[in-house]
Amino acid sequence: MSQFFIHPWMAAGGLALISIPIIIHLLNRMRYRTVRFAAMEFLLQSEQQNRRRLLFEQLLLLLLRILIVLAIVALFARLLLDPSQLALLEKPETHHLVVLDDSGSMRDRWGDTTAFDEALETLKRLASDLASQGGNHSLTLLQTSQPDRSATSLTRRRIDLSLVGELEDKLETMQQECGYGLATWTEVFPAIQRQLAVDKNAFQIVHVLSDFRASEWGNSPTLKADLEALKDEQTIVNLVPTVPARHNNLAVTKFTGTLHTAAVKVPLQLTVDISNYGEAVVENVPVRVLIDDEPIPQSISIPQINAGESVQETFEVSIASAGEHVISVQISPDAIAADNTRYLTIDIPERQRILIADGSEQTREADYVADALAADPQITGFEAIVIRPDSIRDQDLSTYAAVYLLNIDRLAPDVLKSLEDYVAAGGGIAWFMGDRVDSSFYNDLASRESEEETEENPTDKSAEETSTNQAESLFPISIAASPVNLLRADDTNPGADLELNDNPIFEILNAADGLLALFVNIYQHVPLAEGFEIPKSVKVIGRLRDQSPLFLESRFGEGRVFISLTSAGPVNNTDENRWHNWPFDMNAPGFTVFHLELAKSIANRMRTREPKLVNEPINIVIDPAVSYPEVRFNPPAEGGLSPTSITATVPKSTEKSPKETPDGEAQKLVAEYVDTKLPGVYRIVTEDLARESTTTLTAFNVPVSESEVEITTPEEFRRELAGVEGIIVQDFGSLEGLARDDPGRELRLLLLLILVLLFAGEQWLAYRLGFHSRDTVSSRGFTSRMPSGRQFVPGDQRSSSPAAKGVAS
């Protein structure tokens, strides 16, 4: 009954009142007493003629009185009927679809409130106003963080006082549920349209409660079209801002470092970017750096950040122990506190291992490189392991930061395959030529690149379109059969032997206008094969005086490849046969720094964990031959989320049948964790078959775009939407222009009109059937009709015989 009446208890009690006119009708039939008088035969004849008409009129009078009672009950209990059944009498129900922006920017705080708090208060006020007005209103709540899933308890709920009370409790809990992620309006608008399509006959109002950031709304080229797509004759859009004005906000927008080359007690270079999104200059900004939640003693302060600008600060830290660590930077809290901290995680080894495979006699080339990289591992952080090329197959390459391949004639197919897998996964290799190089092997590798270039990089593609192409070979260039000598500089051929690009690995050589590069002499090198054109996937970063390419780089999979067409060491210690003089005398410092920077440039990125953004899933790959499938995810402790254990399973998209799985290879399993709505550090615990647990750290940060506090004002909205009907733009704190005659009010007017008609009909019919005093004089005497209904006959002759009573009745 509650679905038909606003006050169902009153309707239930009112139904009992229907019995009143029925009882009165029955009592009236018992009032008549039969009195015999002279004209009895005439009266009997008259009564028989009018008997059916009188019975019909009495029943009609009873029905009218029952309907009057029902109408009064419906009026006071406030009857509500299905709008589709009253389409000719009233408008349909009003469905209020509230779109609540719960993105990170809604945490914008001023005073004791936030943009999200204001949105919740607006929602509460909207429901309260509609409930007090009465009528047929329903509510659906949609949050931008989950546009395809409306709140189960707030889907097309009738707005009444009970819902207002429920909202009081629910919204108090929701105050703690504002997210940190993005509001993807390109996904929200289609979700709104799907909700509106559920009942196209209902009148619907879409209330958008948001801070309306300029980056999302003011700069959107499709904003007007998106809003117009929502409205129609039955739908209007109501834009409700939840922020009164733009507030000042500083944010840590970037935090990076050379994590892939970090080692214990070796200075680790980090870079932090602080951006000023406010309208005022900010001075003396202190920056705190914490390692495992402990602040470092170093003090960092930024003197000034102008409005709309960013400042970059570089500093070094040193980590005292190997293993998993958390590094974070913080600035003082302001309007949006969540963007004042940014996190990095790192699994730091004791030393970064460099594998050097040397094909020269007695590994003489490797000695020069090893001395440059690991003369003092406590300072450089590198440990050099020198081997012969055939021993590569015995190494676990994933444990090495980089692989140097020096003066190698050729590699066995299995060794080449392991190197390709290593680089494709993120590793790096550096090729150096020498007197033992077999050009046929290298040109065979380069031929793969030529074929792929022909297939995938047609000549009609622009350089810009193919600038990001990856090489299809570890050695993507063809070389000549033998090395050549570089003509020495003289008056007719002046200049330094090296012309180097502005690349970090050449930083020391290019310093002071290339002073150190002037003293490096290149005597021999291996030129490119005659007529060979360098593919678009290869970049030349250093040339000789005669413009011959000397240093090149390319990408292979996730890794990096460096190629030097001269040797790593001098090859021969005699002055006449040296390939260059780089490691000797005053060139030695430049040689050492070059190799340190080269190792950092190509170093393995496989162990580097890039920070994720909130709401991105964590996917942990489990090898069942090594570890148990159970994975425990521990979210940031301060967020209030509980740890969760998930059993890894075979991914549906890559699920293989037993026949498709290689013999002896276990199918990899994946454990996916999606509840990453909090910024901070998540700890993932796995356990191997020996019951030894391993903890991995993953950092989650807030999106930079949520720090942009510039808003689209109501005035800007109105200018942009000028001439567009059906869209209401509210001022902050306002809810106007939504008044509408609701179905309940129109039904009450109808009930009042029906009552008037019923009362008029009942009075007329009651008068017609009632007894009224009148005197009749005839030749036979007179009769009098008494108010009680008893007829009086002169002489007061009564008959008490049953037959007479039966006839009279």
Layout of helices and strands, plus pairs?
Layout: H1 8-15, H2 19-31, H3 40-77, E1 94-100, E2 109-110, E3 113-114, H4 115-133, E4 137-143, E5 157-158, H5 161-174, H6 185-196, E6 203-210, H7 214-218, H8 223-230, E7 235-241, E8 250-257, E9 268-276, E10 282-291, E11 294-295, E12 300-305, E13 310-317, E14 323-330, E15 341-348, E16 352-358, H9 364-374, H10 377-380, E17 382-387, E18 402-406, H11 413-424, E19 428-432, H12 439-456, H13 463-466, E20 484-485, E21 498-500, H14 507-514, E22 524-525, E23 538-544, E24 549-556, E25 559-564, H15 588-602, E26 612-613, E27 618-622, E28 630-634, E29 644-647, E30 669-673, E31 680-687, E32 693-701, H16 714-720, E33 727-729, H17 743-769, E34 775-778, E35 781-785, E36 791-792, H18 802-808
Describe the structure.
There is one protein chain. By secondary structure, the chain is of the alpha/beta class. The chain contains 18 helices and 36 strands. Helix 4 (115-133) packs antiparallel against helix 5 and helix 6 (185-196) packs parallel to helix 8. The radius of gyration is 45 Å and the shape is elongated. It starts with 7 loop residues before the first helix and ends with a helix. Mean pLDDT is 84; it is low at 83-91, 452-467, 655-659, 741-746 and 773-809.
Number of strand segments = 36
DSSP helix fraction: 25-40%
Main β-sheet: number of strands, strand sense, barrel status? 8 strands, mixed
Q: What would you call the shape?
A: elongated
Low-confidence stretches: 83-91, 452-467, 655-659, 741-746, 773-809
Number of helical elements: 18
In round numbers, the mean pLDDT is 84
Lateral arrangement of strands in the main beta sheet: 17-16-18-19-25-24-23-21
Cα-based radius of gyration, to the nearest Å? 45 Å
Q: In percent terms, what proportion of residues is strand? A: 15-25%
Oligomeric assembly: single chain
Termini separation: 43 Å
Category from helices, strands and their pairing: alpha/beta
